[in-house]
Amino acid sequence: MSVTIDITGLPSERISVVPSPLGELGMALHALSEPGHHPELQGWATAVSARLDPGLADRLCEADFLWRTTFSDVFAPFAGIPGGRAVPGATLAEELDLLDKLTDEQFVHAALEFTCQHRYDVPEAGPLEDPAARRRALELAAARGAVQERFTRRLLADPPAVRAWLRQLLRDCDDAFFADIWARVQPQLAADARHRTELLRRRGLTEALTSLSSAVSVDEEAGVVTVDKLLVGRTATGDGGLVLVPTSLGRPHVMVLHRFGWQPSISYPVSGSRPQAPSVEQLTRRLEALAHPVRMRLCRHLARAPHTTSELADAHGMTPPEISRHLSVLKKAGLVTTRRRGRYAQHQLDLSAVARLGSDFIEGVLR
């Protein structure tokens, strides 16, 4: 499973690396509403939540589906500007102006992502123009709760009023807490953008894109960028560009905007000390390897000390070839290491890899 971006014919000068204050505000709101996704930000989230004005906190709850369960594309309005060449604004005010340039249809469609569009990357009639889509959006909103249903009805009845309400909400967030955050993280994001741009100029497209995350791979011959995620999607740059948006608050999420008709973009966390999660394929292989009861029992021995195949066969009442087959599965999953001592090959469980399985799983599903 992955999201692919067709970049056939895309020159490097149409790849832009640009921080987004509106995107970072969206990440901040997400971290406030889902602190479990961002354990390193829990202290900050607790402090900000404690000092929020109650009225602002209530308004945030009213619209939190824009950033809690999904990350709405209203936080990347540059991508919806016709021509596919726009980039994020330098200030939050500039980005809010870009948000105002989206049509009501674009805004409503993006804001209602939480109503679970079947295919995000193909043309689909929106709820403003299609009665069936409108009914479906209201049904799915009602299933999420009364607050979401009320907001959806307001949005469908009067998009301009809700857009003005959201703009004011985001400005109030800026006054309350985000201006301080942006002043702190903007230099780091700008430095990362300069580094990636220079890497693109000196080393080329493949090295620049794969440096974003271990989840990103490039096949220049085929003209395809692949982002390893637990979903399937596709988009193309066409005559437009590709925008890379660094985020300081977004780890572990690597997000690909692949909405039909919008400019593709990749939002990636800036470099940190935490190791990257394994690919979805590798994570699946590890979980499947440990699901077998024999391999679980083998791990009990291999976690305590190195053992040879013969020792394991004797301990488990199995033949060496049977043990070898199970060890091969564990090795392919990256859970067992082997070293030679004279004529003996000793196998041992990689405790650090096993210890990371929980966090790797969380990062994999949240990526």
Q: Would you kindly provide a written description of the structure presented here, covering whatever features stand out?
A:
The chain is of the alpha/beta class and 367 residues long. It contains 15 helices and ten strands. The strands form three sheets. The protein has a four-stranded mixed sheet. The protein has a four-stranded mixed sheet with strand order 2-6-8-7. Strands 9-10 form a two-stranded antiparallel sheet. Helix 10 crosses helix 15 (357-366). It starts with a strand and ends with a helix.
Task: Show the helix and strand layout.
Layout: E1 2-6, E2 15-17, H1 21-33, H2 42-51, H3 54-62, H4 92-101, H5 104-111, H6 131-144, H7 146-157, H8 159-203, H9 205-210, E3 216-219, E4 224-228, E5 233-236, E6 242-247, E7 255-257, E8 265-269, H10 280-290, H11 293-304, H12 309-316, H13 320-332, E9 336-341, E10 344-349, H14 351-355, H15 357-366
Parallel strand pairs: 1-5, 2-6, 6-8
Antiparallel strand pairs: 1-4, 3-4, 7-8, 9-10
Helix pairs in contact: 1-8, 4-8, 6-7, 7-8, 10-13, 10-15, 12-13
